[in-house]
Structures are given as structure tokens and as C-alpha cells.
Amino acid sequence: MARQRFGTWRSPIEASDLATLGTTVDNILVDPADGEVYIIEERPAEGGRNEVVHLASHKDVLGQAWNARSRVHEYGGASALAYDGFIYFSHVLDGCIYRHSKSEIVPVTTENPNLRYADFAIHPVHKHLLVCIKEDHTNDAPTDVKNSLILVDTRDQRSHGLVSGADFYSYPRFSSDGQFLAWRQWNHPDMPWEASEVYVAACQVHQDGITLSSSIIVAGKCGKDVATEPLWISAHQLLVVSDISGYLNPYLATVSCSKSQMDVGAVHVETEPLFHDGMEEDFGEPSWMLGWSSYAALDENHVVLTSFRSGRAQIYVYDLRSKASEEINTPFAVIQYVHSLKNGKVVFLGKASDREPAVVEFDGTVFKPLTKSKDPLYSVGYISQPQPMSPADETGNTYHAILYGPTNPSYEGGEGDERPPAVVYVHGGPTWLTDQALDWKKQYFTSRGWAWVDVNYGGSSGYGKAYRERLKGRWGVLDITDTVTAVHLLASQGIIDGKRTVIRGQSAGGFTTLGAVSTFPDAFAAGGSLYGVSDLRKLNAMTHKFEKYFCETLVGGLPEEIPQVWKERSPISKADRIKAPLLIMQGSLDRVVPPKQAEEIVRIIQAKGGKVRYVVMEDEGHGWKKSKNIQRALEEELIFYEEVFGFI
């Protein structure tokens, strides 16, 4: 093996390969009638189109004319349902719900471009009745968009409102006998991972549809506690997770309603925790998208639960009779989209740190890949393994980061006592997290002799409620200081070259990137902001309904209450302090962070004589979905950083 300057190693990992790497699994569908498994694939090579694929035959179900994607809450998710041999899906191009059968695809709602639908449930007895989220953009101002749960008669396209009054809804779920409907709802100013409620109501089916009795709260509390992911495991038993203990933990609700009471709609619920002593793990993910599923019934007496602990997935088999659980050793860093099969097994998407994601069947003991086992696109010798770290800052508070060292089988190191340059990645949200699953984008850099550092700063999910809430009122401060502290620590330990460190992030991570290079002008040698926020005040004034009040929570008050704080936290107000060369990339159709956010800070930096490269991705929104743009973005970034450090 040779020695060569870090950052200049030759690598076979090319952006063109990563852009056409294949597909991303957007969700898993299981038809409860026949147990058939489908996956929703997001395909960059087809312009980001979502296709439903029958897993056993590997055949496309819909065809290229269809795109099973939703724009509810702007981020989408839960765009399709498999039930009784049919596929129900939202077609993003016209917003309609369609039903696919073996012979035809027919609309079950009338066309209206102002309406968006997602998160479907079919009544188990009256199978022509479908419940889902409707998001009405007839008046598109964030305060005027209306969300509700509706009932659709799939025979004649008639629909009517079922539940309304709250700002948001998700997870409509019928009990196995159809007597009850559960759902989740929340209201502004809360985000769903801050506070939300799970309700249940009795269903009365009649000629005109369904009437719900007076609903009752199962778990959660507006403004205080989270409840999410309602899942019926029997006709009268409902699983939910709630963070009332400080972590998202599972609870079992027993729901009852006598016949005499059914006439007046009285429903009773008794709820108890599965883990009476609590678990310092999060059994669920932040609901940026719809359709997350973290647990499922294995059989009538056992459930499979998944969680995050220390930044990695854990899996448990829980016995409902003995109330005992068994932790199963898992090779997966991330487990998502857990669903029951008919044969006493569950299926999920498993993501490891050293191999491609796979759809996996689990019987409580053995993991069996259902998708053809794929070797990594490149030799495992090019895969840098995650090294999680949880150091304390100067105040004694722990923060979390993940280090990936330079890795290439053709090289043993740099020149002399050289330390590697580093890419420091700040995730979006800002309450999301960066996991430890294999990401070829990271390997694209590490195989060229770069270190890569993921920072899960205070405010990130997966580490409990208190850790996530650290960011309240401190966005634009804590995220930056945790990131800078992580860099200083790694540099002081001789792990990275602190003078050759770049910071990058997308969306809220782009905000942290811009904030870091303007608050600490000498901390980073370069920065890369992908559709990042530069002006919090304008973002708050222009943002969509889902995040309408999110900024106020994160900054600590209304703009008119603390105008100086809003100004100081906005990178655009400090843009004249930026010394580091910046690469800024932006989607031309972005509704979440509009292009003006990028254009204005670029103009200020250019006027001050700073170095900035501005790249606009045409026909892209909040993130890149098309192969050509995924490739271009990676290549632009690498070349920009290489130019800054004189590698080319």
C-alpha cells in the first residue's frame, strides 16, 4: 500500500454511479388479505418517480405513467396501501387517489389539483370504505390550508368529512373487526414530535358511510407529550408510543365498548406501559414524513419492537402474556417500516453499516433477506466504518457525533505526520438525526482520503426528549457550538486537520453551516450549504403550514417579541463576516426554503468580495430527486473543496 497526501487518493467510487445506484425504499406494504409484500421505490433515474413493486416477482405494479407519491405536509409519505388484492395510491401529478387491480387503474376520487391525500385505511368489513388524510390547498396561505380525515366510497368517488378541527392528522387505523378507528392529531404551534395525541372512537357503519362516536384520548397531551404510531394488534388492543417518560416508549391500550354503550358512543380505554420501569430508548422516529412503522405483531401473543439506542437500532420480541422482552442481536444500524406478515413473522427494511439495505423477514429469532442479497457496490475495503462518540462539552453536557476515517485498500495513510482533511456534516430538521447506515456519499469522500464527521448536536432525535428539547430557543447557537466543539476535539486529538475542515449541511443543516461560518469565521476552511436557510425572519413569514410555528419554538419567541435575536441568529445579518469560501446549491422549485434565501446571501457575499459559488438545480424542490442532479451536486462539492485545499 502506498502513502499519498490525504484528500488526493484515487477512488473507484464515482458520483455517476451513486446517482444511478438504484432505488430508495420509501415504504413497505403488506396486503393483510394474502400476505403479499410490496415496496415503494423512489427512482432517481426516472426523475424521482415512485413505483410500487411486487417483491416476490420484482415486477412493477403501476408503470411509468404513474407516480405513487404524496405532498401532504410537503414532505409526503404513506402514499400507498395494499389491501385485498388492490393497491390504493396517491398520484402526485394530479393529486387523485387511484385503485389498481390486475386489469385496470381507476380513480376513486374526483380530480382536484388543490387536494392532497395520504395515509390510507380500508374498513375490514365494508371494504369499499376508505379513510385517509385530506389536505385542502384551495386557499394556499399556510393559515388557510385545511387538514382532515375523510371517508371515501371507492365505488362512486363520493367523500365526506369524518374528523376535523385539529390542524393535522395521521395514522387512521381500523381495528380488525372494524368497530373502532384510531388516529393521531396535533395542533399548532406543536410539531408532531413535540406534542400530539392518539384518539380512538367507535364506528357505526350505515348506508351513507360511517359515523364516529365521541372520541377519547388514548395517549399524548396537546402542548406537552407525544403519542404516535397507533397499531391494532387485536380487535380491542392498541399499541402506541408516548414520550411521557422522557423517551418514546410503547404502551398497550385496551379498548372496550358494550353494545348498549355503542348506541350512545361511549368508549373506554385502559392504558399501561409495556416496560413498567421505562426504557431510555426511543421506540419511534420524528414524523417529518408520514408512514413510519416501528413495531408489529409477530403473532397473537408477541410483538416485535424496534428502537434507537446510542444511535443504532435495537430489536425486541415482547411477550404480551408474561410481559417479558427479549433483546435480539441485530446486524442493522437502522430498522424501518416494520409490518406483520400472515405467517407469524414480520418484515422490515434493514440498513447495515457495511452492506446495501435489504427487505428482511424476521420470525423472532432469524433474519432472512427477502430481497436478493446484494454485495456492496464497491469492495468492503472502501467502506469506512462508523465510530460513534459521545463526549461532553465545557458545561458537562454530552453531545453525539460519528467519525468515519479515511479508508482505501490502496493507501495506508497520508504523507509524514499529516492529518486528514474532514467533511463535517450537519443534519437537517433541525430535529432529525444522522444514523450509522451505509451511505455511499460518505464513502465517496473517505475513499479519497477525507475524514467524515456526523454531528448529532443537542436537539437531535433518537436520544430522548430532554436531549431533543435542548434546542428549543437555542437554534442557531447550540447546533453551531456543538459542531464547532466536535471539530476542536477531533483536531486536538490529532484525528483530523482542524485547518482543513469543511462544514456542510442541507436545509436546517445548511442554516447551521451558514451560521457557523458567519459566527466563527476562522473555524472552517470552507462550507457547503444545500437549500439552507439564511434569513429566519423571511423563512418564518413564507414557510408552509406544517412548519408555520416551528421557527418560533426554536428561536424562542415571535419576531416582534425578540427582533434582535431573530436578526442575530440569521446568517444573512452576519454575512459580511464570512471568510470561508462557500458553495451554495438550491432547487429552483423549493417551497420549503425558497430560492430567495440563497440568492440574497450570495449577493451580500459577492458584494463584499467573498468567494461563493451558486448552483441552481432546475426543476428540483427541497432536495434532489433526479439522477443528473444528484451526480452534479456531488461532483460540484468535491471539486469545490479540492480547489480550496489545492488538491487540483
Automatic annotation (TrEMBL):
InterPro entries: AB_hydrolase_fold, Peptidase_S9_cat, Xaa-Pro_dipeptidyl-ppase/CocE. SUPFAM superfamilies: alpha/beta-Hydrolases, DPP6 N-terminal domain-like. GO terms for molecular function: serine-type peptidase activity. The keyword Hydrolase applies. It comes from the Eukaryota. GO terms for biological process: proteolysis. Keywords: Hydrolase. It holds the Pfam family Peptidase_S9. Residues 438-646 form the Peptidase S9 prolyl oligopeptidase catalytic domain. This is Alpha beta-hydrolase. It comes from Coniophora puteana (strain RWD-64-598) (Brown rot fungus).
